[in-house]
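Design a sequence for this backbone.
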């Protein structure tokens, strides 16, 4: 089968197409013919080696995490799926990758594709959907009537998280460029700051939670908008010691992550705020709940561009520019 693989760490110049054997299944896995693969920032960060300490890969490794396609075969213990089923999934942090003609998906990670989405739309959902749910519902425990700040509202995570937060009954503040103000308002954002004109921390006040999606000092600056007893969960980092413990890392890594996160944790405590780092986990059952919301038209996908499979490297390079409005998707067929 044709696949886009990472040969060695170093960047996108170490990514190339290759012919690989068609994968075989374990009893609890399904083989999916990939119709489309959704891209996420981590898909171009991993080739640079940025996540090597957290998730070392056996190279060569197939690039990509999200997919939508049709089940071709099922393992002997699979009960939820059969050949011919249309499915979508994230296989992030698992053994395989999605930018290939075929992908192996553990049964627990897959869900039936929303009936009202095509394969390209469905492939755009898994990582941003699961990340948003796990951050807003499980970690931030967002309640109806609370206020949450979701920066970069026109991006892949932001465009989904705004809609999900509104479904949970929250008031949503976001930041975006002037050209994207109408988009984020159409997604449900209540308070919008054009970051080219104003700083969010000078406009927003008395927020209950922040979903951290920006690098640099933006996270520390945003603490000023929170009221006492608030929570902040970062998708960008720095990773904390709790994350290292959860992944079963050794004492040295726990210490390193503890030191890396010490400053933001200290600053958060000064604002009477709890800080944590989130690493998305695949979850087909939660993905099925998200599919229900999509079929009820409570949430819609936002897609910036679609690339052909042969243009997958170009798609990753485009995403790396940081200008996408919503998701970038590679269409296999």
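Sequence:
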């Amino acid at each position: 089968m044709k696949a886009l693989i990472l040969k060695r760490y170093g960047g996108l110049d170490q990514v190339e197409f290759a012919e690989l054997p068609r994968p075989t299944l374990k009893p609890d896995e399904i083989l999916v013919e990939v119709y489309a693969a959704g891209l996420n920032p981590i898909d171009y960060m991993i080739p640079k080696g940025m996540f090597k300490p957290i998730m070392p890969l056996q190279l060569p490794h197939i690039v990509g995490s999200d997919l939508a396609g049709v089940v071709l075969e099922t393992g002997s213990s699979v009960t939820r799926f059969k050949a011919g089923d249309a499915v979508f999934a994230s296989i992030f942090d698992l053994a395989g990758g999605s930018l290939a003609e075929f992908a192996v998906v553990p049964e627990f990670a897959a869900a039936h594709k929303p009936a009202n989405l095509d394969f390209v739309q469905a492939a755009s959902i898994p990582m941003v959907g699961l990340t948003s749910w796990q951050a807003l519902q499980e970690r931030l425990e967002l309640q109806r009537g609370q206020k949450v700040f979701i920066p970069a509202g026109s991006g892949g995570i932001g465009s989904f998280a705004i809609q999900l937060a509104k479904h949970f009954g929250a008031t949503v503040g976001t930041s975006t460029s002037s050209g994207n103000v109408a988009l984020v308002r159409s997604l449900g954002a209540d308070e919008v700051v054009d970051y080219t004109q104003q700083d969010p921390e000078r406009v927003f006040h008395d927020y209950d939670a922040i979903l951290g999606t920006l690098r640099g000092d933006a996270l520390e600056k945003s603490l000023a908008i929170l009221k006492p007893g608030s929570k902040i969960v970062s998708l960008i980092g720095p990773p904390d010691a709790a994350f290292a413990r959860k992944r079963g890392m050794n004492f040295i890594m726990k210490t390193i992550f503890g030191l890396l996160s010490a400053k933001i944790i200290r600053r958060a405590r000064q604002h009477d705020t709890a800080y944590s780092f989130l690493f998305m986990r695949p979850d087909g059952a939660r993905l099925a709940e998200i599919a229900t919301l999509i079929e009820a038209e409570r949430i819609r996908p936002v897609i910036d561009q679609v690339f052909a499979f042969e243009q997958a490297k170009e798609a990753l390079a485009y995403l790396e520019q940081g200008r996408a409005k919503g998701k970038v998707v590679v269409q296999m067929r």
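The chain has two domains: 2-125+301-331, 128-277.
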